[in-house]
Fold this sequence. Notes:
The chain is of the alpha+beta class. It is built from six helices and six strands, in the order E-E-H-E-H-E-E-H-H-E-H-H.
Amino acid sequence: MAEIHSDDLRPGIRAAETPSDRVPCTVTRVADSKEATMTDIEDMGPIDWVLIEFSGPLTGKAAPPLLDLVDRGLIRVLDIMFIAKHDDGSVEAIEIENMPGDEAVHVSVFEGAGTGLLGEDDLDAAGGVLEPGTRAIMLVYENSWAAPFAKAIREGGGQLVDSGRIPVQSILATLEELEAESA
């Protein structure tokens, strides 16, 4: 994994203050940073968020592919929040050091990657869609791979007016339907 040093970073961006076995990504506090310039923000790619629900304990199996995306410069993690929705419906953000059993070990690579960009309103929104008795990870990331394209669009006077995602399950279902129709 590539290690990022503070002298490699632009103003307004700081590295996770953790040992080299932690997330080797820059963590940006765009919302809070007085040092971030408009140029820094204009140079960014599209920013996405995902909320991933787990019915059992967190195993860390998704960490290596995520870190690979970071290492290859395809994404930049802006914030991460671990969430628990208890059986009684209450929701809480959980710190890695407060996770039970092996969960903390499995996700310790993300220690220090949280920035505070995600807040209580995000936690409340997540609680509204999570099932009781589950764990979740909410991740905000920049699509760094698209930054040059996004910058060129902005410089050309364009702006994104809509966007969406097609779930893989929908594509698979459509392909199955098409296959059944052609059989």
